[in-house]
Amino acid sequence: MDALISSLSSVSAQLLPIVGVVALVFLCILLRKLWNLIDEATKTVHNLEPTLKGIEMSIDKVQGPLDSAVKLTKSIDELSTKTSSGLNHASEIAGENVNKAKVIFQEQLEKAKAILAKATSSQKQDPFERKDRDYSEELKEYEKEKVDHE
């Protein structure tokens, strides 16, 4: 057993530097590939920079009209709210005043009826007057006679 351990120790002493060098080579290759990946990402970002600036300028151009549209929408909402409240208030006032106007109109109508009744009762009626008589025939004859005389 001691011989096995001493032979493994001597093999390990000879292989350890070789394994270390291989590990360092793989580490260098990995670092080199990582370095190239970072360089390519940097180039890609630099290539995208004009595109991003163009997009930012477009967004800035669109932002002004969007702000105006937002202000217009808020103004329309406020106008709608105020119009609605104004119409509600007007309808409430109209509802209250319709009843008052109805009462006043009824009173005036009753006064007019009373005055008319008093005026018609004080007039003398003609006993020869016929209320239901149709005078259209007499009117036609009169017009015919008038045309014949001319």
Give a written overview of the molecule.
The chain contains two helices and no strands. The chain is mainly α and 150 residues long.
Summarize the structure.
With 150 residues, the protein is mostly helical. It has two helices and no strands.
Low-confidence runs of at least 5 consecutive residues: none
Task: Write down the overall mean pLDDT.
Answer: 83
Spatial shape: rod-shaped
- Determine the structural class based on helices, strands and strand pairing: mainly alpha
Integer-rounded radius of gyration: 56 Å
Outline the biggest β-sheet. none
Whole-Å distance between the termini?
A: 165 Å
**Beta-strand content bin:** under 5%
Number of contiguous helices? 2
* SSE topology string: HH
Number of distinct beta strands: 0
Q: What percent of residues adopt helix (DSSP H or I)?
A: over 70%
Question: What topology emerges from the helices and strands here?
Answer:
Layout: H1 2-122, H2 136-149
Keywords:
150 residues, single chain, mainly alpha, rod-shaped
